[in-house]
Amino acid sequence: MSVLSTGNTAKLYCLNWIERYVVEKGSEVKILDLGCGTALNFVNFLRLYPQISYVGVEPSRDSCLKAQQNLSGLNARVVNSPGYHVHEKLREKFDIVVSFSVLEHVYRRLDYLSSANACLKEDGYFLINYDAGHFIHGKEKLITAIGQAIARFGIERYYQSFVKEEDLLRMLERIRFKIIEKKFFNTSLKGTYKVIPESKRADYMKKWLRFELWLNELGIEYDDSKARFFGTRNFILAHK
Ligand SMILES: C[S@@+](CC[C@H](N)C(=O)[O-])C[C@H]1O[C@@H](n2cnc3c(N)ncnc32)[C@H](O)[C@@H]1O
């Protein structure tokens, strides 16, 4: 299996999971990437698996343009929009919906998660991860406070806030998402990645992911206080 993503074990884990799904399915797989940014998570993936059709949704016009460049020649398109009411805009359903490192930046979270739900086929999967830890320190604290204040006046672009486990679980229940699996990732080894020699990074990613999966098997009960150890929360969801 190729290393489909680097620097982040939650994304690598999800991409590996999707790769297995694609190989098992054998036919066309439709993927929706909410908050795709520049879509770099999927460029290698789409090159390897041309039977995937990919739609990225991204509110930032600049990131959208970069995503379009990155995806040129691939079976993919990018839509410039926030992740709200996406089904009404696209009018199609997907086998897999992903949201990588986005939810912590989303102001209207219930609308966003409802949008993912409405875009998902009856037997589809929603893979979502979000950063649980990075708003706690120094400069980020100030950015967070300003972003939260101006979001109330309709400028959502700078919004970020901690995703409380309890709030998320309540929203998933309300939208009728079923939890297939929950995990935590990205211990401080995430920082170590940056000093690993280029030629060893693929190997590092495989070993690091194996280590994080082992941590997930120890029976550690995740709660918000553990966000400082495990930077990323990861869920696989399906319709109830
Ligand atoms: C940290 S980036 C992650 C980008 C990409 N998913 C990745 O993993 O590299 C967060 C992205 O979320 C997008 N975003 C913020 N609020 C959003 C919303 N309400 N709906 C959809 N995307 C949103 C931002 O524009 C940004 O591209």
What percent of residues are in strands? 15-25%
Spell out which ligands are present: S-adenosylmethionine
CATH class: Alpha Beta
Computed over alpha carbons, the radius of gyration is: 17 Å
Oligomer status: single chain
Low-confidence segments, ≥5 residues, pLDDT <50? Answer: none
> Helix- and strand-based class?
alpha/beta
Might you state the CATH topology name? Answer: Rossmann fold
Mean pLDDT: 93
Biggest β-sheet, characterized? 7 strands, mixed
Overview of this protein structure:
- This protein has 240 residues and is α/β, with parallel strands linked by helices.
- Helix content is 41%, strand content 22%.
- It has a single domain, classed as Vaccinia Virus protein VP39 (Rossmann fold).
- The protein has nine helices and seven strands.
- A seven-stranded mixed β-sheet has the order 3-2-1-4-5-7-6, with helices on both faces.
- Helix 1 packs across helix 9.
- The radius of gyration is 17 Å and the shape is globular.
- The model has no long low-confidence stretch (mean pLDDT 93).
- S-adenosylmethionine is lined by residues 34-37, 41, 58-60, 63, 82-83, 100-102, 105-106, 112.
- Residues 34-37, 41, 58-60, 63, 82-83, 100-102, 105-106, 112 line the site of S-adenosylmethionine.
